[in-house]
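Deviations from the work plan: none for this task. Representative record:
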Amino acid sequence: MDDIRKLIETWARAVHEGDLAQVTAHHTDDIVMFDVPPPYEGVRGIDAYRASWPGFFEWQRSGAVFDIEELQVVEGADVAFAFAVARCADAGDDSPVRLRLTFGLTKADGAWQIAHEHHSFPHQQA
Amino acid sequence: MDDIRKLIETWARAVHEGDLAQVTAHHTDDIVMFDVPPPYEGVRGIDAYRASWPGFFEWQRSGAVFDIEELQVVEGADVAFAFAVARCADAGDDSPVRLRLTFGLTKADGAWQIAHEHHSFPHQQA
C-alpha cells in the first residue's frame, strides 16, 4: 500500500512540476485515462497520455496548484485501485471544489503500474 | 471476469429500471461514489449511496437511456477495477458525448462487491 501511495504522490508532484518523464514513468502501454477535457472516450495509450500533458504543465507553471488532500488505496496481490481528492486550481482560487481522481493499477515484475486514470470535477449546476 | 461483467451489466440495467434493491445489492458499506453532481467529495456510505438514486430513476422513467457501450474489467484474486463508457441521455438526444464510469471492487466471502464508483462527463468548453 505504501508503494502505491508513494507512486501516486510522486506522480502528483511531477504533475505540478511539469516533469513529463516522472509523470509517465509508471504507466502501462495501454493506459486509458478519462480526462477532464474531451474526448469523452478518454486518452488511450501511453503516447496519447504523454501528449496530453504539456498544456496542463503550462497552466501549473503559471501559478496553479495540484495537491492531493485525501488518498485511499485498496491493494490486492496484483491488482489495486485508489481514489483521491485534490486541489487543482489557480493559486488565488479559494473555491471549495476539488478534483476527483481514480486510479486502476496492475503489478508486473514486482512493480505497480497505472493502467487506468479517471479525472473529473463535479458537474456544476447552471 | 465474467462475474464482474455480469454484476456491472446487471447494475446498469437496474439503474435504468429504477430497481433500487438491485442497484445497491453488491456494494460495500463504505462505498465512495464520485458522482456527476456535487458534492465534490462524493457520496460516502451505503445509506448515502441509496439516497442518491431516486432523482436519477425519475429522470430515467421519463424516457432517458442508460446503456453501457464498452466495458473493460481488470481482475485480480481479491481486488479488481473496471471502466466503462455509457450512453446516458434523454431518449431523443443524439449527442456523441458519453458518461464515463470507473468501478473499484473487492471480494468478500467469494463474492465481488463494488467499493468505489466514479461517474463523470467530460468538461465541455464554454
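The longest helix of chain A spans residues 2-17.
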